[in-house]
Design goal:
heterodimer; A: mainly alpha; B: 2 domains
Chain lengths: ~190, ~150
């Protein structure tokens, strides 16, 4: 009864299968645990700054009681993209240890950089996380205000993406940052005069 | 019982006054701010007021009135870092956003110099400009605007 006998192979396979299920299940459970809002705000950097700002916005509290929590916007839903984001997030752990943003003052001085990172990420993915809930296809432009409907029409035509106009909707904008500076359509209009 | 007539007289006037006060308060029952509901019951729930959206803006009632805000403003915040109103009402964005431009006067500092940013004394928009609920006035009046 060596390892290479029929019975031995079967045992190894079964053992490997069970180990695989356990490992995979454990891995996914652990990853899901890091995808909870309670995990995000277990760091005071998040809890004291961005979370407080978010609780005053429409994504936290609104008429219909739908809430988008941190991971809904900041972690991709699809598995591959999620893993990539999670691996990149290890850099955040490193800076947590360094204490790069461990006071509100430090956070504020880094805010433009942090915000720009996130804006770039969303721009690259065509605002994928926004579109998990907000799709142009499901928008009834008749129910929107004229101004919004016009601008959305323009956005579809020119292939703009959510984040280009909707910055600072869930968190405060960096000090002195003027969204008009890179809202699409605003600059061109001005040069016409 | 009483030492003299004078004390008796003063006391009887005092008692009369108190009786009168009690009776008058019953007659003209005073209503407090919380309404006339009993102390052990809840006050009357005030009606909800939704902020009105008026396309084309709200007419001025008098000359130099700061224009009123014809839309909801709960999404926009004014802080020391940013002014949410300026996202649409700034010189740069107003045309594209079809918004009213912030008045020239808002860029003039206290000493009369023209600034390239909002003057700090005009920074807090909602000190003068407010949104409206479109309710009828609490007290009827015949005032006519311009």
């Amino acid at each position: 009864m060596g390892l290479f006998s029929k019975e031995g192979t079967l045992k190894v396979l079964l053992f490997g299968f069970i180990l695989g299920v356990l490992f995979w299940g454990g891995f996914n459970t652990a990853m899901e645990a890091t995808n909870q809002e309670s995990f995000c705000i277990s760091c005071h950097e998040m809890e004291e700054n961005v979370y407080q700002e978010y609780t005053e916005t429409i994504h936290y509290s609104n008429r219909t009681g739908v809430r988008a929590t941190c991971p809904d916007c900041h972690v991709p839903k699809e598995w591959v993209h999620k893993i990539v984001r999670k691996i990149k997030a290890s850099n955040e752990l490193y800076h947590k240890m360094l204490g790069t943003i461990d006071t509100p003052e430090k956070f504020e001085s880094k805010r433009l950089q942090l915000a720009t990172n996130e804006w770039k990420r969303m721009l690259k993915t065509d605002s994928r996380e926004c579109r998990n809930c907000h799709e142009f296809d499901s928008m009834d432009f008749d129910k929107q205000e004229e101004r919004s409907a016009d601008r959305h029409d323009e956005a579809i035509e020119n292939g703009w993406t959510c984040i280009q106009c909707h910055k600072g909707i869930a968190h405060e904008l960096p000090a002195g940052y003027d969204p008009a500076d890179d809202t699409p359509g605003v600059e061109e209009e001005e040069s016409d005069d | 019982m009483f030492k003299n007539v004078k004390t008796k007289k003063v006391l009887s006037i005092f008692l009369l006054a108190i009786t009168a006060m009690i009776f008058s308060s019953v007659a003209f029952s005073v209503e407090s701010l919380r309404g006339d509901s009993a102390l052990d019951s809840d006050a009357n729930k005030p009606k909800k007021h939704k902020v009105a959206t008026v396309s084309g803006g709200i007419e001025r009632n008098y000359k130099l009135q700061p224009p009123m805000i014809p839309h909801k403003i709960d999404k926009y915040r004014i802080s020391i870092k940013n002014n949410g109103c300026m996202k649409c009402h700034s010189e740069k964005a107003y045309k594209k956003e079809k918004a009213t431009r912030v008045g020239e006067s808002h860029y003039i500092a206290r000493d009369g110099t023209k600034l390239d940013h909002l003057s700090s004394r005009r920074y807090f928009c909602t000190q003068c400009h407010v949104s409206q609920t479109g309710d009828s006035p609490l007290v009827e009046n015949t005032y006519e605007g311009i």
